[in-house]
């Protein structure tokens, strides 16, 4: 319905010029007087269209939130289960069918809606893994979460609406992609050494965000290795986590002071 409203008001707005000419011809009223009417009509239709556009963005966000309420991540998963979450695949199918309808909209409206929806989805996914209610996270859970992100990236790269150039839509997920890559590769030496450099491969990873997730893994490491705490590899891993956490706190405090 919103799509149809936008299409209708766009046509009505564009027709105001012809209406101006028609009224002038049949009434002999001065073009200046009719032009005022045209401006009022054009403005009215434009306002209606903008309202409908904003409502589309809002409704899309609400629908994404509804799907995310169905998410049921097992954050203590020892290994990924090998496929993306059902709710996430249903969400992407919904977005694909929705944006297929948007082909009837003016190009920029469809592109803005798609980018807005992608950014909202990426933000909500990040909130899922950083949620204060999530006390512990395993590497298996992060790898499983990554399978969902991969599906989001595939969706973004498929040009769901025409006109989005290159990897524009994929950039909506770049913060989450760099965060998960940092943890899955366990690439702390690179992150810490290159922090603050413009060519840092983890440029979009905020140290405070990384610290929040690392703390969740630290808790898991402690609790799952009560009887293995004297094993050298476990002691070394625990020491590394503590060292990285300390450095991240330092970076986070520096960022806070700087800002």
From TrEMBL:
Annotated family? Belongs to the SEC15 family.
Alphabetically ordered keywords of this record: Exocytosis, Transport
Annotated ranges, domain Exocyst complex subunit EXOC6/Sec15 C-terminal: 1-216
- Originating species: Petromyzon marinus
- Which Gene Ontology cellular component terms are annotated? exocyst; membrane
Q: Name one GO biological process term.
A: Golgi to plasma membrane transport
Q: Which InterPro entries match?
A: EXOC6/Sec15 (IPR007225), EXOC6/Sec15_C (IPR046361), EXOC6/Sec15_C_dom1 (IPR042045), EXOC6PINT-1/Sec15/Tip20_C_dom2 (IPR042044)
| Signal peptide start-end | none
Q: Which domain of life is it from?
A: Eukaryota
Query: What is the protein name stated in its UniProt record?
Result: Exocyst complex component 6B
